[in-house]
């Protein structure tokens, strides 16, 4: 039997590597005679862990080099956390699969929200999480947090907490560290949070067809609407933005540098993308007033 080799570009962090290994196993199980191997790529976000994400480009800093490996022919597909993908597609690449979503919620590690003393320190590198927690607890003190999952878990402030994505802890078997799962209505997740996106070259029909077995239609529909909301705002994670689709409803969050916070939940009718775009326009117009 002829073996078809599929090269998977991914970051080398434990989370990214494990996500890619799950994708590789699913492809090999669904396509006998295919073999997948991982191609590790360092991204700007991995290299520059000394500065806040939003100062080096925000969304996209963990994906561009991985995408380039596919475009340059060093790999056949790229595996990303969907929340890291810019809302505008990369030229020459297509998102061939959105895998079934894991738990999309944020979580506190180190303490529950009510358990944090007045003025306690919370570490997070996300401007969205800071804005949402500030709205819930204006007394909290926020500090920067960078690094891989295990590094971040080692940096829980004394008598404080850090904020993590539940899905990241799930995939590494570390959910026992969670002190509190945050309700998505209280902390609206990032666009695509909990989902893995897989890209391949747009003209690679063979790989695109092979990836159909891991594409989860309900997740694709939900994340596509969330990404449409983000694309309409024209921003990545440099602004506090959240959007989450669940049970046919879109919950959207937007804040500005002055501390103004807007949040709404709308019912998604037949055209989810159009509703998401209209919601983004309405929130943007309101926050500019």
UniProtKB/TrEMBL annotation:
GO terms for molecular function: hydroxymethylbilane synthase activity. Residues 222-283 form the Porphobilinogen deaminase C-terminal domain. One of its GO terms (cellular component) is cytoplasm. InterPro entries: HemC (IPR000860), Porphobilin_deaminase_N (IPR022417), Porphobilinogen_deaminase_C (IPR022418), Porphobilinogen_deaminase_C_sf (IPR036803). The keyword Transferase applies. Pfam families: Porphobil_deam (PF01379), Porphobil_deamC (PF03900). GO terms for biological process: heme biosynthetic process. It is an enzyme of class 2 (transferase). Signal peptide: none annotated. Residues 6-207 form the Porphobilinogen deaminase N-terminal domain. Keywords: Porphyrin biosynthesis, Transferase. Its EC number is 2.5.1.61. Belongs to the HMBS family. NCBIfam families: hemC. This is hydroxymethylbilane synthase. It comes from freshwater metagenome.
